[in-house]
């Protein structure tokens, strides 16, 4: 037995319950968890980089374990990497915690000068990416390194191609094309590409650059990628699955999809079909539209909810939002109509139903400052309840209203073959009542007021902060009211003064005595303090400026650009911020591709007159302009398009 004495410690462990739990069960559990979260089946892109951003706490309960889980919302953000050199570069000593900046900043001598400043910022960011990160996906601007946030194919390059062309950066474009020519869209067999992000960034970027340059290599690469992604459409409904391996064609199996993920590919695949002449690409887009057109929206005012069953094509919840996980699904309604030369009346009617419901149920107004913002609602109207969270992502919505005012005869829809009152025929009684109330107004007025009011609200979230940068989410005053209720009270009282929520909002700026003004003064509290260099607010300002021609929107955009450049510029690029409630802002080591694809593009376009007329070009949700076109008679026959 002496020979077996080495077993005694092990025997003691198994006989002692506490030791057994500590030294056997716990290590095994830890190892199992680590293996689970690093296994081959997990996609390898971080949640922070998803275009539609982090979901609300409601979505955390919906997460089914496939793909990256939503991040927590109730803890402080992680500390940023050391950033002392850049803070000194911003004019602040490392020992100074807060700087209070003059507001508003001095205006440029001309808007042309402003456009050139934005162009120089784009060049700075892309050249940093080119030097330290290409051909990888994104630049890490604090450590001058790279991140393969998606598929490792150079997403910043493909996302930036059309911006280079619009800014006449031909040498930079030629260098970028050397990388495009090497694209193979290869990936390891245990990985999968997120369909939504890959479509709007890579495919959209390649197609837009092709439309602007007519370089056939771009169309060749777009065709290859579009084909490799197409297994996602192999569902009963035709709505796309979440991800796919572009080599093996193996897809994920999740059969519930978020609206933004399943309904933000139609512009890209429709134009790919048109440009390539390949019927199958058109079919993918058309099948998506057919599924959405057949969805039962009678209980939600004609507005598409956030989650759909990919087999049945029917919604599975009553969560109505224009923010995370839903946004671009609504956006593509009007953009499909415009891109195809205003020929698809059904998608126009879907857009009108959606905006009717947003106007009457989603838009809210704070009582004192009259900040207008789109909320999220849960439940079947009229028993729906609002979650008064204002997301930066939702700031695209005022731009969408502005685009409609700019491009649609909203007060003469009959000229487009649309009977406005019949839009409620298949809706429940609440939906019919919403339409009846809207008929008391000119529709163009409602859409213009919504565009102006919410654009002002989005700009306010920037101008209130010490850094001049908007937080990603705020929680609005609980005594906010539905904007349409306030509008009805204004109408019934005689329409005196401007419509509620449409006047300029005075910023609540920090002072030496009060760096962070009280929540009750601002009428909101910061929910997520990060700034991700997102484009939605400046997109709205661009489209609202195009709608009105009012310099007010250019001034807002200039103020935002000054803060962005002052707070986030590093020696190699621009960095997202983790804390916007101070200046210098705390930065983090990420530069999402959309800052070059979208944010700087929209800033450039708002300062640059007469570039990309809106009746000739339509922007996809990643700000990639695609041309307006119509089907020829021969194409209609070949593609099976009704005359």
Shape: globular
The residue-averaged pLDDT reads: 88
The counted number of beta strands is 18
Instruction: Output the structural class.
Output: mainly alpha
How many H/I helical runs? 23
Taking pLDDT < 50 over at least 5 consecutive residues as the criterion, the unreliable ranges are 1-15, 17-21, 30-96
Physical arrangement of strands within the biggest beta sheet: 8-7-13
What is the rounded Rg?
25 Å
Q: How is the biggest beta sheet arranged?
A: 3 strands, antiparallel
**In angstroms, what separates the terminal alpha carbons?**
93 Å
> What percent of residues adopt helix (DSSP H or I)?
40-55%
Oligomer: single chain
The proportion of strand residues reads 5-15%
Task: Report what the structure shows.
- The chain is mostly helical.
- β15 (577-579) and β16 form a beta hairpin.
- 52% of the residues are buried.
- Among the domains are: 184-294 and 616-643, no CATH class; 305-464 and 473-509, no CATH class.
- It is globular and about 60 Å long.
- Strands 8-7-13 form a three-stranded antiparallel beta sheet.
- Residues 1-15, 17-21 and 30-96 have low confidence and may be disordered.
Describe the structure concisely for a colleague.
The chain has about 650 residues and is mainly α.
Chain-wise SSE layout:
Layout: H1 8-15, H2 17-37, H3 57-62, H4 84-89, H5 111-132, E1 138-140, E2 145-147, H6 155-166, H7 170-181, E3 193-194, H8 195-213, H9 216-229, E4 243-244, E5 256-258, H10 259-262, H11 266-276, H12 279-293, E6 307-309, H13 327-339, H14 345-362, E7 363-365, E8 372-374, E9 376-378, E10 385-387, E11 389-391, H15 396-407, H16 429-438, H17 443-463, E12 473-476, E13 481-482, H18 483-492, H19 519-522, E14 524-528, H20 536-548, H21 551-568, E15 577-579, E16 586-587, H22 594-607, E17 617-619, E18 625-627, H23 633-639
Antiparallel strand pairs: 1-2, 3-4, 5-6, 7-8, 7-13, 9-10, 11-12, 12-14, 15-16, 17-18
